[in-house]
Structures are given as structure tokens and as C-alpha cells.
């Protein structure tokens, strides 16, 4: 099969981690007789430097004509002085909106061999942790009306019932393939948008009688993630809450460098990226962990391209690499041998075969 993949390497460590993910995907193509056509385009800080825009029209055109998009990371202190609408991070919001990527899926899985890197007490995560956070991605406070007038600024949190319905369906469908439990997170004791959120989620739940639904306020959910993370299966929440909770969950697993994400739209079209940032302080030093990006490729094969066997092959290769003792700096314990970004990519690619 032939697949068109748009590649946005971005800024900081983006080019390094994306390079290793592409290497692994090429190995999948060789093994399973698929042809991946990679089209590299610009977004973020590097796009500003080269074109004057954080999200050039050519980038959107290529992405829309592709089967899926791979994204590294954008941003860095070099562009911090720019106005909000011109910053590299605005390219992310633009991609999500223009590609209609309303559903963000972020797994948080504790690899048994990395349990010692978890900051929680061993008994709390004994037996592992496997959570999927389903975050609404194109609504809420990030996309609501906003303005600044002198010493006053306003960001409006807005949601329509339709936006809540479609992300709720996504969460319940995922839960049906897992442990059949959805925890919807809101702040309905304070926010009108959360009251609409809770009411709508309960209406959607009727269509999935085999899935248990419960609700948590976002502050309690944040506490429960560190007190008893194993109680969760699928967490469903709005844009800003999901942004914060998914980062918290990532650190419970030991390193933000381990966690992938998928941003999906209609017909399972998706953009795939690690949840971490561009880490300009370690860019070009071979210290970055490419596993989150490589696992994002695994999600691409599963969710957008429907290649489950190939997806499993990458996950198994990552597990084998970790079981064999290979560690990047962020997941290494004292005394363990540290491999570079490129070496970790090579090690995982070798284990595809």
C-alpha cells in the first residue's frame, strides 16, 4: 500500500525525534511491504524564520492532501517576544482548527521496566498503569473570544453541545475496546460550560450501556491521579483541563518523553506528535528521547491507517528495547548506560525485524 505522510519537524529537538520516528516507519514499510511518501513542510519558529508566517498556506495544503501528519514540536525562547497571534505555538492551534482535529487521544502507560522512574510510592503503581485521556481539542478557552484592553484581558471559554457530543462518542468508543469505564472531568459546580458538558455526556452515555460513567471535578481528578491512578481507564475532558491532566499523567509514568498523542478529525484523519515540547536547551545534543514520537507513529498506523499488526510491531520493539536495558538520559537511573537519540532510534528499528 502507498501512503502520503506530511512531516513537520518543527523546532528545537523536533528534527531529531521526527528523524528517528521516520526511520522506524521506513523499517515498517520494508517489513510489511508498504510505501510511505514523506513530504516535509514547515510550521512553528522555523517557518517564521523562513517564510515570515508560523503556518504557511503551503503547509496546510500539503497536510490536507496527505493521509496523516507527523509533527515534532514547535516554539522556543527565540520567538518569545512575538505577539500571541504570531508565536510558533499558534501554528498548533491553526493546524488543529484547519484540519478539524477535534479529538486528542493521549495514552499514559506505565512500562513495567520503568516503574522505578515513577515519582509516586511503589505501592500506588504496583501492577502498572494504563490510562487514555480523551481531550476535546478545538473548543474551550483556547479558541474562545479573547481580547486585551489596557489593564484588562479576557479569554472566553465556549462550548456547543455538538462539540461535546462528538468527543464524548470518541471516548465511549475507545472505552468499549478497553475496560469499559469513562470518567468525565469538568468543573460543573462553577462553570456553565461544564454544566452543559456534564448534561451532554450523560445523554451520550445512554448509547453505551456496557460502559460505566462517572464524573469528577477537575481539581479532584488532579488529586486522584497521584493518589490512585489505577482507578482510571478513559478520562474524558475539555481542552484546557485535558492539557493539564495529560501532562500530570505523563510524569506519573516517569518521563514526558515517553508519551505519544493522536489528534483526530473526521474519517480518522490525524496528526501525530509527542506531548512534550521543543526542549531547545538540549537540541542538537543527542539527549532527546524519541520514544514518544515513535509511539505516536504506532498510533498513526492504528487509528488512521488501520494497520494494527504494524502498530503492534512498533510497540513490541519499544518494549524490547527497554527490557534490554537501553535508556535515554531522561529515563536512566544512576549507573545505567545512556544511549543517544539516534542510537535509541536504531535500537528500536532493529527490533522491528
Work out the helicity level. Answer: 40-55%
- Rounded radius of gyration (Å): 20 Å
Could you say how many structural domains there are in total? 2
Q: What is the count of helical runs?
A: 12
| Full CATH superfamily name of the largest domain | Isopropylmalate Dehydrogenase
Mean pLDDT: 94
What topology emerges from the helices and strands here?
Elements lengths: L1 E9 L3 H19 L2 E7 L3 H7 L5 H8 L3 E6 L16 H9 L4 E7 L12 H4 L4 E7 L9 E4 L2 E4 L5 H16 L4 E6 L5 H14 L6 E6 H10 L6 E4 L1 H14 L7 E5 L5 E5 L16 H13 L4 H16 L17 H12 L1
Parallel strand pairs: 1-2, 1-3, 3-12, 5-10, 8-9, 8-10
Antiparallel strand pairs: 4-5, 4-11, 6-7, 11-12
Helix pairs in contact: 1-10, 1-12, 6-7, 8-9, 10-11, 11-12
Describe this structure in words.
The chain has helices spanning 14-32, 45-51, 57-64, 90-98, 122-125, 161-176, 192-205, 218-227, 239-252, 291-303, 308-323, 341-352, and strands at residues 2-10, 35-41, 68-73, 103-109, 130-136, 146-149, 152-155, 181-186, 212-217, 234-237, 260-264, 270-274. It has 353 residues and is an alpha/beta fold. The strands form 2 sheets. Strands 2-1-3-12-11-4-5-10-8-9 form a 10-stranded mixed sheet, with helices on both faces. Strands 6-7 form a two-stranded antiparallel ribbon. The mean pLDDT is 94.
Keywords:
353 residues, alpha/beta, Isopropylmalate Dehydrogenase, 2 domains, ten-stranded mixed beta sheet, two-stranded antiparallel sheet, globular
Amino acid at each position: 500500500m502507498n501512503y502520503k505522510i506530511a512531516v513537520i519537524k518543527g523546532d528545537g529537538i523536533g528534527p531529531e525525534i521526527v528523524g528517528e520516528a521516520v526511520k522506524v516507519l521506513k523499517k515498517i514499510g520494508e517489513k510489511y511491504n508498504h510505501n510511505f511518501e514523506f513530504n516535509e513542510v514547515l510550521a512553528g519558529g522555523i517557518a517564521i524564520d523562513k517564510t515570515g508566517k508560523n503556518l504557511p498556506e503551503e503547509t496546510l495544503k500539503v497536510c490536507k492532501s496527505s493521509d496523516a501528519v507527523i509533527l515534532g514540536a514547535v516554539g522556543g525562547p527565540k520567538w518569545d517576544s512575538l505577539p500571541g497571534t504570531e508565536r510558533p505555538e499558534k501554528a498548533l492551534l491553526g493546524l488543529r482548527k484547519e484540519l478539524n482535529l477535534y479529538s486528542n487521544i493521549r495514552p499514559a502507560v506505565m512500562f513495567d521496566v520503568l516503574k522505578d522512574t515513577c515519582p509516586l510510592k511503589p505501592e500506588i503503581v504496583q501492577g502498572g498503569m494504563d490510562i487514555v485521556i480523551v481531550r476535546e481539542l478545538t473548543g474551550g478557552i483556547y479558541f474562545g473570544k479573547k481580547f486585551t484592553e489596557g489593564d484588562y484581558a479576557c479569554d472566553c471559554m465556549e462550548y456547543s453541545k455538538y462539540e461535546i457530543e462528538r468527543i464524548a462518542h470518541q471516548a465511549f468508543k475507545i472505552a468499549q475496546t478497553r475496560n469499559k469505564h469513562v470518567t468525565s472531568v469538568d468543573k460543573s459546580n462553577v462553570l456553565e460550560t461544564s454544566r452543559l458538558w456534564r448534561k451532554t455526556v450523560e445523554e451520550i452515555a445512554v448509547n453505551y450501556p456496557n460502559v460505566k460513567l462517572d464524573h469528577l471535578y477537575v481539581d479532584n481528578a488532579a488529586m486522584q491521579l497521584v493518589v490512585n491512578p489505577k482507578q482510571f481507564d478513559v478520562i474524558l475532558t475539555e481542552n484546557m483541563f485535558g492539557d493539564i491532566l495529560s501532562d500530570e499523567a505523563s510524569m506519573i509514568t516517569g518521563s514526558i518523553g515517553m508519551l505519544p498523542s493522536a489528534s483526530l478529525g473526521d474519517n480518522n484523519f490525524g496528526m501525530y506528535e509527542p506531548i512534550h515540547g521543543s526542549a531547545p536547551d538540549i537540541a542538537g545534543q543527542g539527549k532527546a528521547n524519541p520514544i514518544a514520537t515513535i509511539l505516536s507513529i504506532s498510533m498513526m498506523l492504528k487509528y488512521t491507517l488501520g494497520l494494527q499488526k504494524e502498530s503492534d510491531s512498533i510497540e513490541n520493539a519499544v518494549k524490547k528495547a527497554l527490557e534490554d536495558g537501553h535508556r535515554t538520559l531522561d529515563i536512566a537511573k544512576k549507573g545505567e548506560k545512556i544511549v543517544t537519540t539516534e542510537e535509541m532510534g536504531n535500537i528500536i528499528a532493529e527490533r522491528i525485524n
